[in-house]
Amino acid sequence: MNVISKSAVTRLNLKPEPHPHPFHVAWVDKTKLPVTERCLVSLKLGTCDEDIYLDLLPMNVAHVLLGRPWLYDHRVQNCGRENTYTFQHEGKSITLRPANPAIKPTKTNITTSSPSQTGKVSGPQLALLSYGEFEKESLETGVVFALVIKEISAAPSYQQPEPLHQLLNEFSDVMPDDLPNELPPMRDIQHAIDLVPGSQLPNLPHYRMNSSERAELNTQIQGLLDKGFIRHSLSPCAVPVLLTPKKDGSWRMCVDSRAINKSQLNIDSLFHDLRICWMSWQVPNGFPRLTFVAVTIRFVLGKVMNGKPHSKP
Length: 313
Known about the structure:
It comes from Prunus dulcis. InterPro entries: DNA/RNA_pol_sf, Peptidase_aspartic_dom_sf. Residues 98-122 are annotated as: Disordered. This is Transposable element protein. By secondary structure, the protein is an alpha+beta fold. Among the domains are: 3-96, no CATH class; 187-201 and 264-313, no CATH class; 203-262, HIV Type 1 Reverse Transcriptase, subunit A, domain 1 (HIV Type 1 Reverse Transcriptase, Chain A, domain 1, Roll). It has nine helices and twelve strands. The chain has a five-stranded mixed β-sheet with strand order 2-3-4-1-5. Strands 6-7-8 form a three-stranded antiparallel β-sheet, with no helix packed on it. A hairpin with a 5-residue loop joins β2 and β3. α8 runs antiparallel to α9. The radius of gyration is 41 Å and the shape is elongated.
């Protein structure tokens, strides 16, 4: 069958007409496509000009495919070694040869010193495209992209407004560049995260890491020890630590507390205790459970303050 793509018909503004004998085309995977339209197209192959009916199909491998009907009508002879097709038209022999895959050299223009002055071509070269070549390429692809190069000057330095600068200086102790080498002072109410009674404490091995990561981890741990934020623990409970990269290329030390979190009290049970304690406030003074009420409420408020658990003031 002789085929023309629907995209070519649309681009060339051809008028399709109903096919006198509609049929289906089956592919290798048994997929069928209906052929219900055809179009009269003027083709030029070398010195051969003719009008031929082509069936319409959606395809993207080519715009026009000349198949068995055209080969039969023109008695085309194929040479497999040279990949040529030869046929007779109006007493003349016409041979169709494959396109040359070689890339045509583009014209170049030297934007620096001329070769007559230097004796050799140096510096950047500018590839130029003629108007005809540009028009041909644009019509064939249908899409044209333009790349515009713009020089970027140095980014201007950001200067803080004077009111903002005074505000930051006034409250510099709230947002210091580094934390002080001591813990916050002791508060009247101390909060703690209790574990489920009878739960087994996890003792997991450390994660594998290379020598550079281990050195970075030791540096961060030593810095926390020097500031007094952490201390050596004798607890049988051990959770592994690992390093995760940050956007600026530095490393953040993280503690994998998933195992110990499973042994903590469930927040739903804490809210349940809070409801029980709220109901217990209605009993007369001196009820033995009243002392338990105050302790439980204070503990629960420490767990849900600011929407997240707090183990330290």
